[in-house]
Amino acid sequence: METEIPTHVTGRAYGAEEVDGPQPWGHSAEASSLDVKCLPIIRGEVVPDRALLQHDMAQLSFIHGIRHHEDYANLPEVVALCKDGRVPGSAAFTRARNARQIMSNIVPEILALEPSSNSPFPYCIWYPELATEDTYRQLAARYPCLKYQVGRACAVAGYTSLYKELDLLPDVSIAEEARASPKGNGIFEYIMGQPLRYAVLDDYTRTIRQPPVPRASLNDDTALASTLSWRTAPSRSFRKRYYTAYFDITEDGGIGHVDEGSRPNDEFTVSNRWLLYSPLPTDLPQVNKNLLILMAAHQGNVDRYARLKRPQMVENEMMCVVRGIYHSSPFAKWWSSQIQGKGLETFELASAAHARFIMMNDLSWHTPDIDESFLPYMIWYPVKPWEITLRALFKLEPRMRHQIAHATIACNYQAFYDELKAEPTEALLREASYSWNAHYTADLEARRHEMPTTRDYSQEPLDAWDTAAPDWQKEPTTVILFRAVGPDFIDHGNTGGLYQGTQPDVSTVNLFMCCSEEFIRKAELDEYGSIDVINEVEPE
Q: Which domain of life is it from (predicted)?
């Protein structure tokens, strides 16, 4: 059934049969078709029907269209979809429409008493446009539960007088917003001048914390208004962005009818690289902290990581955490107390923690009914366990024969290796080739040829971390210095790696930290923004 659209709105709604339940975005042709259908919705040209609104992409597009187009938001068909609780996403549509009215200097009629996940109270009421100071004043008077959102809008707009009238707790998100706003300095200085600050607005969940958290600091946990203009058109790139986003205060996922705006700057330059190696200040300067999170995880620095981490992991964070667990007993112990559930993340974290515990000669974590996925492979790097630990582990867990045999080669525990008589594999042969003790290679080759059927181990599919574990260069390095670094500079190679199948490469970031400012300045002047540091020091 098609929705009739007034003649002043171009296009028409898409007719389709009603279907039950939310629909996935799909792949290839299906996804491309959905992308095309969403574009006129984003532009405020078409009102989607209920069938199309079964798709998340269409819901995000509809929210964007409502927030960005006042006439579109007031169409009877749009109003009807917002009011119909049977329509998927209707509560979010209503919040978007109320936000649009506020930004159009209309104080809407909102019947709910308090904001909630299904309430009509909007969170962001300052993008894509700002209301007048008087509109925000009326809004706060009529709906006191929106006073902190009004305070945030004041920080963006520079309405210092109204902000002070609101008599709010000094909120760190409002302070960060004010600091980033060209007009917000008065509010920023007012908040920073208070003896105690609070975390009230929560941009990750679009809620107001109850109770507010005292003794809060500026910690880059704010979705700044200056970052909201970064928009991505419906596409595979948008899907990746949507699923990895940790902020969505406009509830439209950052969708747009074209790719526009700049991705929020997450680079570290010579001016702020001190944050990578110095004790963190109480209040972070204006910076995207994702690289700090990744490096704290990679180093296994509990204090830095616990302070900096976001509610959900950023891209490449898991592999950095796993590496940090392998290298830090405090980090391993802390994470072992955080692990819950039985998902993939739990398996990665638990097995990494167990590996670290084994290397520390601790087997108290083992239980008779432990799931095999919680058993690690690499248990000899960066620290070698004692031989008696490996012997005890084998008695407790015979399923680990192969990785224990691998450990005996890496640790040169020849007597125990001979007792295990593990089946020769490519991983064991490779590890043996690195050992100064020729016994292991000779034994593996001899037993390999004595087997009833000779297997070509070089051609068999191998577990990623099974083969990467013997690599002698376990911590990559580089000689290429870049003028700036960011989260994208932490590479994991193509496939495989010794840390649960991954290998976070932070060599570029480490070199950037270590090099002199003089060399970084040379990289800044280079046509490609990078230099070979060895070429710079070698005599001509």
A: Eukaryota
Count how many residues are written for the chain: 540
**What is the predicted pLDDT for the residue at 525?**
96
Contacts by 111-117, CB closer than 8 A, 24 or more apart: 113/145, 114/145, 115/145, 115/146, 115/207, 115/208, 117/91
For the chain, which ranges sit under pLDDT 50?
Answer: 1-26, 461
pLDDT tens, position by position, 468-517: 788 777 888 999 999 999 999 997 755 578 888 888 999 999 999 999 99
Find the Cα–Cα–Cα–Cα dihedral 60, 65, 67, 73, rounded to 10°. Answer: -120
Q: What is the distance between the terminal CA atoms of the chain, rounded to a whole angstrom?
A: 77
Does the residue 222 lie in any domain? no
Hey, what are 351's tokens?
A: 């097995």
* Full DSSP string of 119-137: SS--S--SSS-PPPHHHHH
pLDDT in the model for residue 500: 84
Tokens of 398: 């015979």
Within 10 angstroms of residue 27's Cβ, the number of other Cβ atoms is 10
pLDDT tens profile 174-228: 999 999 999 999 999 999 999 999 999 999 999 999 999 999 999 999 999 999 9
Decide: 98 and 124 in contact? Cβ < 8 Å. no
Q: Is residue 206 part of a domain?
A: no
Contact call for residues 162 and 154 (beta carbons, < 8 A):
yes
Contacts of 330 (CB under 8 A, 6+ apart): 300, 302
Domain assignment present for residue 448? The answer is yes
The reported pTM is 0.90
Number of structural domains found in the chain: 2
Residue 197's CB is within 10 A of a number of other CB atoms, namely: 23
State residue 319's pLDDT score. Answer: 94
In 10 A of CB 39, how many CB atoms? 18
Of 436, 468, 500, the domain-final residue = 468
Give the three-state DSSP class for 522: helix
Distance, in Å, from the CA atom of 496 to the CA atom of 475, rounded to the nearest integer, reads: 14
At which of 421, 441, 468 does a domain end? 468
What b-and-e string marks burial along 453-482, b requiring 16 or more CB atoms within 10 Å of the CB?
eeeebeeeebebbbbbbbbeebeeebeebb
CB contact at 8 A, 441 and 433:
yes
CA distances (Å), 14 to each of 17, 51, 464, in order? 10, 9, 47
Print the domain residue range for 49: 1-128
Q: Tell me whether residue 148 is in a domain.
A: no
pLDDT of residue 464: 54
Return the percent helix, strand and coil in the chain, to nearest 5. Answer: 50, 5, 45
Nearest to 155 by CA among 138, 172, 134: 172
Cα 358 from chain centroid (whole Å):
30
- Give the span between the Cα atoms of 221 and 309, in whole angstroms: 10
Select from 72, 357, 92, 415 the least CA-distant residue to 249. 92
